[in-house]
Amino acid sequence: MALEVKKLGVIGAGQMGLGIALVAAQKAGVPVTLVDNSQTSLDKGMKFADKLLEKDVSKSRITQEMAKETKSRLNPTTKMEDLSDVDFVIEAVPEIPDLKTSIFAQLAQICPPHTILATNTSSISITKLAAATTKDPTDTSVSSRVISTHFMNPVPVQKGVEIISGLQTSQSTVDAALELCKRMGKVPSISADSPGFLANRILMPYINEAIICLETGVGQKEDIDNIMKNGTNVPMGPLQLADFIGLDTCLAIMETLHQGLGDSKYRPAVLLRQMVDAGWLGKKSGKGFYDY
Ligand code: NAD
C-alpha cells in the first residue's frame, strides 16, 4: 500500500508552488507547510490563494466554508526546519541547478526517514538531484525517496502531471507520488528521466518547428496558429502558446534537449534566439510573436 500523505510540504510560493499547495489543500484536503525564503513571496502567494478561492466561491464551485477550510490548511513559513514533520515535500524553487541540489541536501537532513522528496523541475535530471542527498552513492536510503512530480501551469487548471523516477527511485516512492497526485485530482503520466521528460520533449520541438516555419517563410504567424488551432482542436496555436510560456523558457528547454540528446533535430530556431536577445519574451515582457 502506498504511503499515506497526512502532511505535505511545498518549497517555493511562486507560480507553481502556490498552485500545488492550493490544490493539495483543496482537493486532497491535506495540511500544507508552504516554505519560501522571501516573506514578500509568501504574502503575495497567500493573497493570490485568497483570490483564486474567492473566484471559486463566486462561481459556486465551492462554498465559503470550504474556502475557509482550504485556507486554514495552508501554513506559510520562511523556515525550512518546519518541514521536519511532513510525509511528502515538493520543491518548486527557481530552475537553478545549484539551488535545487542544495535544497535536496538540506531536506535529507531535515525530513524524517520516510518522507518522499519530490521536485517540480522542468529540466534538471532527477538522478542528479537524488545523488545530491548523499555523500555515499551506494547508500540509497534517501536517494530512493527522490522523485519528480512535474505539474503543469496553471496547476489548478491543468490535470496532467508527469511522474519521473531517477535511477535511484524506489517503486514505493513512485506509488506514493501516484497516489498523492490522484488525490489532488490529477491524471499522472509516467516518464523516464530523460531531457525534457515527455511533455516538453514533444511540445517544444512542435513550438520550435512553428518558429522555423515562420522564419523560413512557410507561413505567416496567424496562418501557423490558425491551422493548428482549428486543425487539431487546441485552445491556442504554437506561437501564441510560446508567448504565454515565455520565449526564454522555450529557448532554455530547446537547449536542454539539444545538449542532452545531442541530435541536430533539436537545434533551437535562429529566430527564437534572436527574439530572446531582443528581450521580446512573450506575454510577460509585453511583446513576443504578438503584442500584449
Ligand atoms: P517562481 O519564480 O514563480 O517561484 C519560485 C519561488 O521560489 C519564489 O517565490 C521564490 O521566492 C522562492 N525561492 C527562491 N529561492 C528559495 C529558497 N532557497 N528557499 C525557498 N524558496 C525559494 O517559479 P515557478 O515558475 O513557480 O517555477 C518553479 C519550478 O517549477 C521551476 O523548477 C520551474 O522550472 C518549474 N516549472 C515551472 C512551470 C511554469 O510554467 N512556470 C511549469 C512547470 C514546471
TrEMBL record:
The keyword Oxidoreductase applies. It comes from the Eukaryota. SUPFAM superfamilies: 6-phosphogluconate dehydrogenase C-terminal domain-like, NAD(P)-binding Rossmann-fold domains. Belongs to the 3-hydroxyacyl-CoA dehydrogenase family. Residues 196-292 form the 3-hydroxyacyl-CoA dehydrogenase C-terminal domain. Keywords: NAD, Oxidoreductase. It comes from Endocarpon pusillum (strain Z07020 / HMAS-L-300199). GO terms for biological process: fatty acid metabolic process. NAD(+) binds at residues 12-17, 36, 95, 100, 122, 153, 284. One of its GO terms (molecular function) is oxidoreductase activity, acting on the CH-OH group of donors, NAD or NADP as acceptor. Residues 7-188 form the 3-hydroxyacyl-CoA dehydrogenase NAD binding domain. PANTHER family: 3-HYDROXYACYL-COA DEHYDROGENASE FAMILY PROTEIN, 3-HYDROXYBUTYRYL-COA DEHYDROGENASE. This is 3-hydroxybutyryl-CoA dehydrogenase. The record marks 150 as: Important for catalytic activity.
